[in-house]
Amino acid sequence: MNPSAEALQRQFGSAIRRVRESCGDTIVTIDPARNREILRWLKDTPEQAYDYLVDITAVEYRDGELPLEVVYELFSLRRKVPLRLKASLSKDQPLEIASVVSLWAGANWLEREVFDMFGITFTDHPDLRRILMWETYAEGYPLRKDFPLRGRFSRSEQVRQALNANPEAHYSMEELSIAEAYYELPADLRERLARGERGHVAEPEGER
Amino acid sequence: MAAKRTLELSLGTTGVDERGLPRPVPLGMEAPELEGAEGAPRLSGEHMLINIGPQHPATHGVLRLVVELDGEVVVRVIPHVGYLHSGFEKLGEYRHYNQLIPLTDRMDYLAPMSNNVCLAMAAEKLMGIEITERCTVLRVIACELSRIISHLVWVGTTGIDLGAFTPFLWLFQEREKIYNLQEQWTGARLTTSLTRVGGLMADIPEGFEDALRGVLRTFPKALNDTDRTLTRNGIWCGRMQGIGALSAEEAINWSLSGPMLRASGVDYDVRKDRPYLDYETYEFDIPIGEHGDVYDRYLVRFEEMRQSVRILEQALDRLPDGPINVDDHRVILPPKHAAMNDMESMIHHFKQVMEGVKAPVGEAYFSLESPKGELGYYFVSDGTAKPVRWRVRPPAFINLAALPRMAEGHLLSDLIAINASVDIVMGEVDR
Prior knowledge:
The complex is a heterodimer. By secondary structure, chain A is of the alpha/beta class. Chain A folds into 2 domains: 3-140, NADH:ubiquinone oxidoreductase Nqo5 subunit (Beta Polymerase, domain 2, 2-Layer Sandwich); 153-201, no CATH class. Chain A has 6 helices and 7 strands. Chain A has helices at residues 3-12, 35-44, 107-118, 155-164, 173-176, 187-194; strands spanning 16-22, 25-30, 52-59, 68-76, 81-89, 96-98, 121-123. The longest helix of chain A has 12 residues, at 107-118. The termini of chain A are far apart. The mean pLDDT of chain A is 84. Chain B is mainly α. Chain B has one domain (88-326, 357-426): Cytochrome-c3 Hydrogenase, chain B (Orthogonal Bundle). Chain B is 47% helix and 11% strand. Chain B contains 18 helices and 8 strands. In chain B, strands 1-2-3 form a 3-stranded antiparallel β-sheet. Chain B has a 3-stranded antiparallel β-sheet with strand order 6-7-8. Chain B has a two-stranded antiparallel sheet with strand order 4-5. In chain B, β2 (64-70) and β3 (73-80) form a beta hairpin. The radius of gyration of chain B is 24 Å and the shape is globular. Chain B starts with a helix and ends with a helix. The chains are: A alpha/beta, B mainly alpha. Chains A and B meet through β3 and α3 of A and β1, α2, α9, β6 and β7 of B.
C-alpha cells in the first residue's frame, strides 16, 4: 500500500472516501468537489511530489447503478512512485468536476477527450471542445455504456448527414475571426454560418 | 578554414565554437518580437489564416493545423485531430483480451510489436500471470526492434521535411531488413499481432538469431553514415537548434514523455524507473538532452537507436531455451493435436475461443517505454472476459498537445520542424 494514501487520509479526513489496492496499484477515491485541492496538495507537498500527470480518463461500469469515475494517474518523478486517484460522479447529478489545467498544462487535451467521450464537464477548463469527434457531432458521447457500438444514428442517417454536410464549413467562428477571414467567404456560406447552421442538416419532409 | 567559414555562414546566427562545432542555443530562446521594438521598423502586418492538412505530407498523417500568421511568424496554432478516430477503446469493450491485440497493431503502426507487448503485459498484470523466461527476452527483442524501426522512420521523414532526402533512403533500407525479420517471425510486416496473453503467438523461426545478429552488425554503419551526413550539417543544425525549446519544468507540466521529455533534460524512462521485462538487468544508457529543442530530440532518438542495439545484443546472448507460453491451458490455447485428441484440452480450447479468458474483478495500469513515449494500457474488469474499460494512454496524443506552446512565435517553416520533432503517428493520436 502506498503511504501517500494514509497521508491523504490524515490531511483531508472525510474527503478521502476509500482506499484500496488492485493488482499492486493503490487507488484512492476522493470527494469530487475537492479534487483540485487534493491534487494540488499531492503535487506541491515535498514529501509527496506527484509532479507528473500520467493520464486522466473516466470509467463507466456496465452496472448502471454505479457512478462514473474520473481517474487521475499520477507519478512522482523524484520518488518513482505511482498513485491513482478516482472521483465518483453520481449519474443523477450533472456530470461536473473541476478542471486541473491550472496544475498541469497537459491536462488540457486529456480533459477534452474525457468530455468528448463521456460528456463530463470540466469547470474552468480554458477550451472545452470536442477533440476526437467533430464539433457538430450530434450522436452523444461514444464511450458511454448507453451508446451503441454502431453509433446512435442509422447508417443511412449517417450517410445522409455526411452527404449534406457543407464541405466548406471547416472553420469555427473563432478561427474565422482571424484576419477577418469570415468576410472573404461567399455570401451564401456567410449567411448560413451567421444563422448557426454549421453542420446541421434540415430534416427531410414526411420521414420518421 | 574555408570549410569552417562556410559552416558559419550557413548557420546564420547560431555560430560555431573554436573546435568548429555548431554552438548550441541556450534554453528558452526568446520568441521573435511581434511588435517592433522602439526605433526598429514595425514588421508586423495583417494577420493571415492558413490551413495545413489534413492531407499534407509534412503533417505526418491526417493532422490538421489552422495557423494564424503574422507575416511568416506563427501567432497561433489550432490543431485538429480525430480524422483517424476508429473507436478502438469502445471496440475493446466488446472483445476478449486476446482479440484486442490486432487493434493495437493499428494504433502505433510504426512500432506495432511494442503495442502488442504492452497489451499482453497489461492483461497479464490484471490476471496475475507470470510469463516464461524465454518469452520475457523475446518480448525485449520485439520492443527494441520496434524502437529502432520507429526511430528510423522518424529520422528519415524529418530529414525529408527539412530537405534531406538521402538519409531517408539509407535508413529505410535498414528498416526493410528489420521488417523482413518481423515477417519471418510473425508472418506479417506491419500488423504483427505478436503476443498473446500469457505468451507469444509464435517462437522465433530457425535462423532468426543469426539474421538478427547480421542486422546488428551492419546497422551501426548506416547509423554512422547518417550521423556524418546530418549531425554536423550546417543546414540541419540551423533548422533545428533553438527551435521549439521547452524547459524541463514545462516538459513535465505538459506531461510529455519519451524522447520529447528526455530532450528537455528530464531523466525519466519507463524502462529504468518502472522496470518491466527485467530491463533493470540490461546494461544501457538513457540519453538526456540539455536544451530541449528539436535538435536535442534528434540527438536523443539517434542515441536511443545505438542503445537499442546494445540491448538487443545482450538479449540475444542471454536468450534461454524453454517454452514461450505459460503452462496454463485456461489462458493459452492447447496445441492443436491435443485439442483434437484429448477431452480436457478440447474443453479448454472451446472455452477460450467461445468465452474468452476471464479476468478477476479489479483494474490494472501498465505502461512501457514505446518509441513515442510512455505507452500505457489501463484495464478495468468486472470479472467477465471482456474489459469494462480499456484506456490507452497515447504518448503521441499527449506530446502533440504541446505543439501550440512550442510553435507559437517561431516561423512557419519552423512549425514543420517542430511538428516533425513530436514524432506523432495519427493512428495512435486518434485511436
